[in-house]
Design a protein that fits this description.
heterodimer, A: alpha+beta, Alpha-Beta Plaits, DNA polymerase, domain 1, Dna Ligase, domain 1, 3 domains, five-stranded mixed sheet, four-stranded antiparallel sheet, disordered N terminus, B: mainly beta, Umud Fragment, subunit A, seven-stranded antiparallel sheet, 2 helices, 7 strands, 11% helix
Chain lengths: 437, 131
Amino acid sequence: MRADSVPAPRKTDGESYIGLIDANCFFVSAERVFDPTLVNRPVVVLSNNDGCCVALSPEAKTLGIKMGTPWFKLAASAQQMGLVAKSSNYELYGSMSEKLMSVLARFSTWIEVYSVDEAFIGIRGSLDEVQSLGRRIKHEVLRLTGLPVCVGIAKTKTLAKLACLSAKKVDVLAGVCVWDRVPQATRNRMMSKLPVDEIWGIGHRTAKRLGSMGILTIKDFIEADPVVIREKFSIVQMRTLLELQGTPCIPMTYTEDPKQQLIFSRSFAEPVTTRDEMEQVLGIYAQRASGRLHRHGREAKVLTAWAMTSFFNDAQVHRPSATVSLPGYSADPVVLTKAAKALLPKIIDGVRYARAGIMVTDLRDAGVHQMFDAFVSPHERAKVGELIETVRAEHGTNAIGLGRAGMRRGPSWQMKREMMSPRYTTHWDELLQVKAV
Amino acid sequence: MHPRRLVSAGVGNVPAGFPSPSQDYSDNKIDLTQLLIRDELSTFIVRVSGDSMEGAGIFDGDELIVDRSIEPRDGHVVIAVVDGEMTVKRLRVTSTAVILQAENSQYPDITVPELADLVIWGVATRCLHRL
């Protein structure tokens, strides 16, 4: 039978859902992919300069170790506890994160990378379909990258977060939770066990105030009256409540289709509060966008740079953006970095920006109509961009960069990373060793 | 992820239809990645230490290209976890047993009852050997 004579499976449109995919203790898992001796052992990953614990395996948590515990307090007894510590291996985590996101991008054209180990995706289907899709995503990420993830699927982002948390905590869910498929009684039981500050967007202080009103668990909160919550708190907490009740209030941010547009955007671990810092961030992001354009063999005509305060920071809302038409089609990091700086005058010192991004649009295949372009910048003619890409390919992403982004690694020359594992995926001289014995 | 690569792997040397004008400008340099890597996402490169796979043309210090997306089958050269160590072996699946075979008579086979008892990290597809 010819392939095209097989009737296509009838596509049930179904409803649209939001999936949240979150890697299980990502840094530790990334280490474990390459070092099976770390499996089932207590492992911690340390912050810059081997300062304190920034990631813990469940086994390490069982030992009573907490996030932020300083390493010097653990070092002496580590061996006795069987505890393994690893210095942060940013190159490895970065490359594994990219692999994770690439798998997710195969399941949805609507992906919002939320952080290094987490992304929202848009999906459609019946409850059963999205459930099996969730399972497939979990299975494929593990199979292709070696990383274990949990998947939460629901009608809103906040519920997807909650579903993912449940997927992590409730063994029978096996790492995948479609919120609307869980029986109401089970949901209630789960929510009444979770404290209110486990809700995405409810901070410590809000949780305390809610507690004084007798709202202690997620179940208490979900049963509250949105109007009352708005009166006592603000629109932010009301939105969170409406989201938990099933009304989408927090939109997906930009979507990516490398044919039409290309985006590099991330939430910051710590808010960026100065124009100087933002200049560095934009430089790095513009150069990452340039790298991606090169890889896709595309060039852009328009660049948009934006920054935003946290969606949960109601007291301070600032979402500046700047769109620049480039002098010609380009993938050149110099051109893109320069264009991205158009955002800087709009950045206010002191505002706590939670996220920034670069989007390039109006894309075309690189080198197509070059002869018609009146304007080719001198460094483009000198192929600075290509040179940077070549140096990076050979010596790593941080070997060379433009302006302040090029200085990014400056302070890290002195950084202590004494217990760092090899950079298996980015350095030829640090490849994973396999035994032929 | 890399539509250009997928297309060129299939039809690169069989031009069909009218050539797109952009082909005049695309760089026609040989791209090793195109040949060696089927899917960048699931591909890892590892380095071999030891001589137990010499019969398969894999020598000490060679690099192997490992694709995690391939389902391991009888005859594949695989990276398997043996006693917590990453090991390269030939996978043999018979009706009665699953065997990890060395390609050097000085090394004994490792037999496991079932494939499920084995952690296979990936399937090696190419060996990079210096001449």
